[in-house]
Amino acid sequence: MPVPLREPGGLTLVDGPDLTGRDVHAIWTIRDVVFAVEQQCDEPDPDVVDLQPTTSHLWLADAAGITSYLRTYVSAAGVRRVGRVCTRKDARGSGLSGSLMQHVLDRWGTERIDLGAQAYLHDWYAGFGFVRDGEDYVEAGIPHVPMTRPPA
Question: What residues does the N-acetyltransferase domain cover (predicted)?
Fold first, then answer.
């Protein structure tokens, strides 16, 4: 079992089963603020994916908590997915989510990677090599675009 990566002031990468209670609280705090409060998503955030063995949580933090976060996991269909990408309001615009996405590509870029992009972020994900892979849809009350990135 790999040891969770926890670099002081740097990237943290923890697999679902290795999350501590403190980790879960910090993750759900940023996701709640961004998705439930700011974006007023109409679906609950916590799900069974968070604790699965194929799920990895990546984040950056400062003294106030997580600044930017995402999770990646292997779906039931055997395809790696990225989701729950979010950045704390006071840390936006500083490239933190881009750093996390680049880490995902560096680590898992030889695999196909799928995601459901909020529609307004289509071009941002396209900058990482993702392309549209279907029709728009609404999830949690927000327009999304299915996207995929072929193996590098």
Answer: 14-152
Q: pTM for this structure?
A: 0.91
In terms of Cα–Cα distance, which of 80, 68, 73 is closest to 50?
A: 73
Domain regions of the chain by residue span: 5-149
Mind spelling out the 3-state secondary structure of the chain?
Answer: CCCCEECCCCCEEEEHHHCCHHHHHHHHHHHHHHHHHHCCCCCCCCCHHHHCCCCEEEEEEECCEEEEEEEEEECCCCCEEEEEEEECHHHCCCCHHHHHHHHHHHHHCCCCEEEEEEHHHHHHHHCCCCEECCCCEEECCEEEEEEEECCC
What fold characterizes domain 5-149? Aminopeptidase (3.40.630)
